[in-house]
Amino acid sequence: MEKVLVLLLVALAVVYAVPDPRGIIINLEDGELCLNSAQCKSSCCHRDTGLSLARCAPKARENSECSAKTLYGVYYKCPCERGLSCEGDKSIVGSITNTNFGICHDAGRSRE
Question: Of 41, 44, 68, 89, which is the most exposed, with the fewest CB atoms less than 10 Å away?
Fold first, then answer.
């Protein structure tokens, strides 16, 4: 029983000893390696080509190239910032091959 208590205390000490709120696996900053967009603060895990390493990147700004949501969690073009919509071709084949690219437009201006 004593050994279990000591082990528990050591484990708690290690958990609380980490001062940095940024994680190793989640809450990653732009430029850090990622496997899925859920790991990034920006919610965009981006790669340039199929053979390149994916890194967290900022979301696409107005009039920038963008991707709609991906099935895989890794983008060739990041999705748009909040308030913008990605207007372009959207097809089932493009969703599977991750080639549904468009341009970010302000949703409010598009309706005017």
Answer: 89
